[in-house]
Amino acid sequence: MKKLIFILVAFIGIQGISMAQCSDELLGVCYPAIGNYKFLKSYPIKMKKSKKGQPPGVAQNSIVLNAGVTYRVTPCNASEYEGKLVVSLYSGDAMVSSSYDPKSKTHYPGFEFQCRKSGVYYLSFYFDEGLEGCGMVLLSQKN
To answer: pTM value?
Structure first.
């Protein structure tokens, strides 16, 4: 019985180490990308591969942004996953900006947004092509 418990604890520990970059350690990897902006919040995102013929899974968070403030939204991917994180900012149903241009199939390292109207906005997250992925989005504001 002791052997079984030891093996189980060791297995759980190994899984935790292999997924380490997909958790708190990823913040340390991503943080330099915000440059001289002030860190506000991180959004860890992990999704399984979408089923064949299904659209990619999408997660969404609401945020309150203030007029007159410039924000930076920075996606960051865990290197051990194939999926590339896409983050888009919405005001109501209208997309304001995105880290991905589907026409040119170009991924950008993030985007800046000059907020002109205070209110509730939405960040939408998914992994390109519905691939399995793990990443983090950092929200920061200009000092």
So the answer is: 0.80
